[in-house]
Amino acid sequence: MSAPAASTVTFESRFATELAEMAIPWKAEEVPAPRLLVLNEPLAAELGLDPEFLASPEGLPLLTGNAVPDGATPVAQAYSGHQFGWFAPRLGDGRALLLGEVSDVEGRLRDIHLKGSGRTPFARGGDGFAVVGPMLREYIVSEAMHALGIPTTRSLAVVATDRSVQRETVLPGAVLTRVASSHLRVGSFQYARVAGDEGLLRRLADHAIARHYPDTAEADKPYLAFFDAVISAQASLVARWMLVGFIHGVMNTDNMAISGETIDYGPCAFMDAFDPATVYSSIDENGRYAYANQPLIAEWNLTRLAEALLPLFDDDEERAVEQAQESLAAFREQYSGAWFAGMKAKLGLDGSVADDAASPVIDELLALLKAGRLDYTSFFRRLGTVARGNAQPAGDPAAEPDGLVAWAGRWRALNPDAALMDRVNPAYVPRNHLVEEALSSATGGDLDPLRRLLEAVTDPYNERPGVERYAEAAPESFGPYRTFCGT
Ligand code: AMP
Ligand code: MG
After folding, report:
1. 228 flagged as catalytic
2. What is the dihedral of CA 113, 116, 121, 126, to 10 degrees?
3. What pLDDT, on a 0 to 100 scale, did the predictor assign at position 4?
4. The whole model's pTM is what?
5. Residue 476 pLDDT class (50, 70, 90 cuts)
6. What is the average per-residue pLDDT within 51-76?
């Protein structure tokens, strides 16, 4: 059936028409009894969609893909990917559909995408479904990331399908409606490259340039400039992850967006106690995607992107490789620069503090945090109070690790700016124990803990009374923590 006019929003199908070789027109599985679990009203408004309509019996089929808006051609997107280092030439949307693109109220083109909408030709052994817990996890964490100011795909809604989905146990099914500046991935370029069709590769790159980096079209070497722009976006993104203690958990090349947005929230988590070796994902047995490895993996993934783009860099392969290597060399510098500037800000050290003075203070602190296994988020937030001279660095003087008080003396001698710290050190992140609490309550039918958690994490820098427990570290009884992909 076709959807009644939701508003003035017009769907386009640019990806589906410009890159038809990578788009299989497909239909979402019928959802007879959709039930709205959560709707992002501010995001709906940003898209020009009426939240009341979306929540109504006429609007819900739009969110499950059962009503196709005029102008939309839902497609499953093809892509390849290196999964834990191994190349899979044909992955694609096994349980997802791109509904199409819409222009938001500011004129930006945004993808509207469904996750959990049923099997597609890319489903392989999968059932094509998603379940309530992992879809709400993506909703919570992506909206928290957005509120933290970190580029990310957004979540418009989660709708329960009333379907029983077999996982380790039987779980309630759900569809997530996701919004992104696009769903072009490193794996999309790998797909075009292994297809051996240079025309397709070029069209894909042109499409990506037009959508994300239009300035690069004017460069002497547009495709190299495009690659440089993706490198910069990823260097900045991963630095932001590291600074807030975010662990993506499954940085396969199919889960890395060309736009520089965080994408595909699976076994992701925020680090509790500071330890660079932290891994939460149950499937990451060798710690490939451990916290501290993330910048290296980003660089590895960008190298795979370079390999895919080589034919566009230069007709002479040797020249193309040289140019790609030159571009790639910038990643480390840009990442380190972004991370260091961000860490200085976390410590309240502004431009007046020389990098040479900040550097040893940062190194010593990270060693102390690791040795004391201190809670990453609350430590930095409390440090603002320490900067004002109103607290001890670890909170509890009895639990103060050796050396922390002496460290704080050296740091305070640099005159940290407490107001700056409060702007960059969040009080509230989606802590693992709180996410689990919200998800298990929601799976059991009680949405209150989810609502309260969302209230806290969507306003993360503004510390306020009434939500104290959302700022506190996990209780001793919680852990060791494990996350699951939720497939
Ligand atoms: P992910 O780990 O979510 O990034 O997914 C990796 C690949 O597996 C993608 O091609 C997904 O579309 C596919 N996939 C994940 N879960 C399912 C499922 N339940 N049914 C079909 N395909 C799936
Ligand atoms: Mg994925």
Report:
1. no
2. 150
3. 46
4. 0.97
5. confident
6. 96
Q: Is residue 291 exposed (0-12), middle (13-18) or buried (19+ Cβ within 10 Å)? A: buried
List, in sequence order, every residue forming a beta bridge with 175; answer none if it has no partner: 159
Task: Compute the distance from residue 18 Cα to the ligand 1 centre, in Å.
Answer: 24
In angstroms, the CA 284 to CA 85 distance is 12
Name the token pair of 353: 């503090």
Q: What is the DSSP string of 267-323?
A: S-EE-SB--TT---BTT-TT-TT-GGGHHHHHHHHHHHHHHHHHHHH-SSHHHHHHH
Radius of gyration of the chain (CA): 23
Measured from the Cβ of residue 419, the count of other Cβ atoms closer than 10 Å reads 10
Q: Of 73, 55, 83, 67, whose CA–CA distance to 297 is shortest?
A: 83
334-349 pLDDT tens trace: 999 999 999 999 999 9
Per-residue pLDDT at 102 exceeds 50: yes
Asked if residue 264 has its Cβ within 6 Å of ligand 1, the reply is: yes
Q: How far is the CA of 485 from the centre of ligand 1 (A)?
A: 9
DSSP state of 349: -
Candidates 357, 329, 300; CA nearest to 82 is: 300
